[in-house]
Write a structure and sequence with these properties.
The chain has two domains: 187 residues, Alpha-Beta Complex (inorganic pyrophosphatase (n-terminal core)), CATH 3.90.1640; 122 residues, Diaminopimelate Epimerase, Chain A, domain 1, CATH 3.10.310. The chain has eleven helices and twelve strands. Strand 9 and strand 10 form a beta hairpin. The chain is globular. The two termini are 38 Å apart. The chain binds manganese (II) ion. Manganese (II) ion binds next to loops. Manganese (II) ion (MN) binds next to loops.
Length: 316
């Protein structure tokens, strides 16, 4: 569907229940909150379905918007979700009821009767902004907070290659509402916990470089959190850190999980490389610049495969 079709569809329906992906980031939650608040401002009934995995850092996005049980007559919409397996467990019973999904993942799976997928959009939040504008919604400071969080998250605060004129224009519209955006930038992009630094220090010592340092990977065993005295969650999300090492074009982290014994992959790449294609070899996906996946292989087997795949990409 086009943005105009989607705006008309929202106008014709009501009682929306918005669904987000597991391991929720600032885009899926920011998009859900923007849509929810925007629809409410237009007189619609809308809520965000509980995502139990929401982090403390992002809790402000869905304050007062989340519900545990959808209404009987709910019309389900998913945002920023590329495939049906990506929902948190409590949302799985409703996946088949989703009427419309709005997404920006290029390699996504169609799994709903209606969809608006725009891979040229840097964030899903920006798509929602366009739709709400078409519906006559007035952007307020309250709505600008989750909207800005969504687009800042998916562009790494306007640093990634996906950042475009539309992203900046949407950010400018957010700033024009008078919303205080600086604390969002500080919390998301200029704050690191001591535990995270401990993990980064370990990663610095244990990263393996390939192809003259143009590719790098780091494998984190399931004992790492205990070894460093940090939380399990602190061990994730360091692929961007490995990629940020000078000269590294392609970075992969492998994290062995304590919970399900799977190995979780995260890949980051600069323009000219495709992180999603590499993760697809492990049944995962995402964007060219940032992607993820998981495997039931042992950590040592997964390391072997990552190294092989990285060498194919780098050496051809
Ligand atoms: Mn997104």
């Amino acid at each position: 569907m086009t943005r105009t079709d989607t705006a008309r569809w929202f106008a014709e329906n009501d009682n929306f229940c918005i669904m987000t992906h597991a391991g929720p980031d600032g885009d899926t939650l920011g998009t859900a909150a923007t849509l929810c608040l925007g629809l409410r401002s237009l007189g619609k009934t809308a809520a965000v379905l509980l995502n139990p995995e929401i982090s403390e850092k992002l809790a402000y996005l869905c304050d007062g918007l989340m519900i545990e049980e959808p209404a009987e007559n709910a019309v389900f919409v998913s945002v920023d979700v590329a495939a049906p397996y990506m929902f948190p467990e409590n949302q799985l019973p409703f996946v088949e009821k989703i009427a419309l999904r709005i997404d920006h993942h290029g390699n996504s799976t169609s799994f709903t009767p209606l969809e608006l997928v725009d891979p040229t959009s840097a964030s899903c939040a920006e798509i929602i902004y366009d739709i709400l504008l078409e519906m006559g919604c007035v952007l307020t400071a309250e709505i600008a907070i989750p909207l800005y969080t969504g687009l800042a998250t998916d562009t790494g605060c306007f640093r990634f290659a996906n950042t475009n004129a539309h992203t900046f224009a949407t950010a400018a519209a957010c700033a024009a509402t008078g919303a205080n955006l600086q604390p969002i930038n500080q919390a998301l992009f200029d704050t690191v916990t001591l535990n995270k630094l401990k993990v980064q220090a370990w990663v610095t010592e244990h990263t393996v470089f390939l192809s003259e340092g143009r590719a790098a990977y780091c494998a984190m065993p399931k004992t790492l959190a205990t070894e460093l005295g940090v939380d399990e969650r602190d061990v994730g999300g360091v692929a961007g850190f490995v990629r940020s090492i000078e000269g590294v074009c392609f970075a992969v982290t492998l994290r062995e999980s304590n919970e399900d014994n799977k190995v979780y992959l995260s890949a980051r790449a600069v323009p000219g490389y495709d992180a999603a294609a590499l993760c697809a070899k492990f049944g995962g996906g995402g964007h060219k610049g940032a992607a993820g996946g998981s495997t039931t292989m042992s950590l040592s087997d997964a390391i072997q495969k990552v190294e092989t795949e990285l060498l194919i990409v780098m050496e051809g």
